[in-house]
């Protein structure tokens, strides 16, 4: 099962990354930008928990987004308590990501068929709640 889920995850990730390539970001970074945009987290550790991503992976991706000028950090926070927010460039990037993200989902849904798509979505939700 582990091998099948990893293969599936890599295939989906490659699809999204290919569509996002013109923006210079990858799917993980796009998800991160969207999560920052949506808010609802108090610190980097809280954001890592909400995204179900290891803190070290989150830190690496935040550095990429910071280097690209998409996010800024709150000067008061340090380490785990540090907060991040989108810059204007980050907000613009989220607006560009959304239609590409929808396109990728629509393409996958069309290839799989609506019924299979729904079954996969339900299975993934169930699997995520077990882990």
Give an overview of the whole structure:
The protein has 131 residues and is mainly alpha-helical. The chain has one domain (2-130): Orthogonal Bundle (Arc Repressor Mutant, subunit A), CATH 1.10.10.10. The chain has six helices and two strands. Helix 1 (2-20) crosses helix 5 (88-112), helix 2 packs across helix 4 (55-67) and helix 5 (88-112) crosses helix 6 (114-130). The radius of gyration is 16 Å and the shape is globular. The two termini are 13 Å apart. 16% of the residues are buried. The mean pLDDT is 89.
List keywords for this structure.
72% helix, two-stranded antiparallel ribbon, Arc Repressor Mutant, subunit A
User: Percent range for helical residues?
Assistant: over 70%
Second rung of CATH, namely the architecture = Orthogonal Bundle
Estimate the strand proportion. under 5%
Distance between the termini: 13 Å
Short account of what is shown:
By secondary structure, the chain is mainly alpha-helical. 72% of the residues lie in helices and 5% in strands.
Please outline the helices and strands.
Layout: H1 2-20, H2 27-38, H3 44-51, H4 55-67, E1 71-73, E2 84-86, H5 88-112, H6 114-130
Antiparallel strand pairs: 1-2
């Amino acid at each position: 099962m582990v091998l099948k889920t990893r293969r599936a995850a890599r295939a989906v990730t490659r699809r999204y990354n290919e569509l996002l390539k013109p923006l210079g970001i990858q799917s993980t970074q796009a998800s991160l930008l969207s999560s920052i945009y949506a808010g609802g987290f108090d610190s980097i550790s809280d954001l890592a928990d909400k995204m179900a991503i290891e803190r070290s992976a989150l830190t690496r991706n935040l550095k990429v987004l910071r280097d690209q000028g998409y996010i800024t950090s709150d000067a008061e926070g340090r380490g785990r308590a540090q907060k991040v927010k989108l810059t204007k460039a980050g907000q613009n990037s989220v607006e560009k990501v959304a239609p590409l993200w929808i396109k990728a989902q629509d393409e996958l849904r069309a290839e799989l068929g609506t019924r299979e798509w729904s079954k996969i979505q339900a299975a993934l939700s169930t699997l995520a709640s077990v882990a």
